[in-house]
Amino acid sequence: MMNKIIKSLLFFVAFAAFTVSVQAQKFGYINSQELIGQMAEVKEANAKIETLKKQLQKKGQDMITTLQAKYTALQKKQTDGTVAPKEFEAEAALLKEEESKLATFEQTSQQKIMEKSDELLSPIQLKINNAIKEVATDNGYTYIFDISLGLVLYADPGTDVSALVKAKLGI
User: Fold this and answer.
1) Which residues are bridge partners to 28 per DSSP?
2) Is residue 12 part of a domain?
3) Is residue 7 in some structural domain?
4) Is there a contact between 162 and 35 (Cβ–Cβ < 8 Å)?
5) What is the reported pTM?
């Protein structure tokens, strides 16, 4: 009987401690997409990425235009009969090599765009994460959720810490 009372008492104390610790936790949320959209650094980085993308697209388009002109010229030579069959095959092989170079250029262009994006946006993301951590630490938040990810089904507007994070970022 005494063991049962002690077990019940220990269970009650553990449950009370758990309840108090859960109640002591402070939760907040932020909409990171809204925040990112308001940052001048992000707009500047996106403009630089877009400029690089347009430059690479133009260069790729120029390569395509040149290659098409060479194919057309070779076809004209063949139609006019001004190219020997072996010479035609050699020139066609060279054009196939240029096609391969074009495909490689397109792949490396995508890689360059991704690398530039990472180079420019990673420091901004780190800055945002640091600001969120500072707000959490300074204001006693146990968790801060990102509502833009769609994982939060309901949030009390009073727990929105966006203004605090914006203040940390100087927005």
Assistant:
1) 144
2) no
3) no
4) yes
5) 0.72
Count of the separate structural domains present in the chain:
1
Q: Looking at residue 65, which CATH number applies to its domain? A: 3.30.910.20
Residue 11 has pLDDT above 80, yes or no: no
Beta bridge partners of 29: 145, 160
Q: Which residue has the tokens 């001004």?
A: 82
pLDDT at 10 over 60: no
Contact partners, residue 42, CB within 8 Å, separation at least 6: 36, 121, 124
Residue with tokens 């401690």: 17
- The C-alpha atoms of residue 74 and residue 81 are separated, in whole angstroms, by 10
DSSP labels for 96-156? HHHHHHHHHHHHHHHHHHHHHHHHHHHHHHHHHHHHHHHHHHHHT-SEEEEGGGT--S---
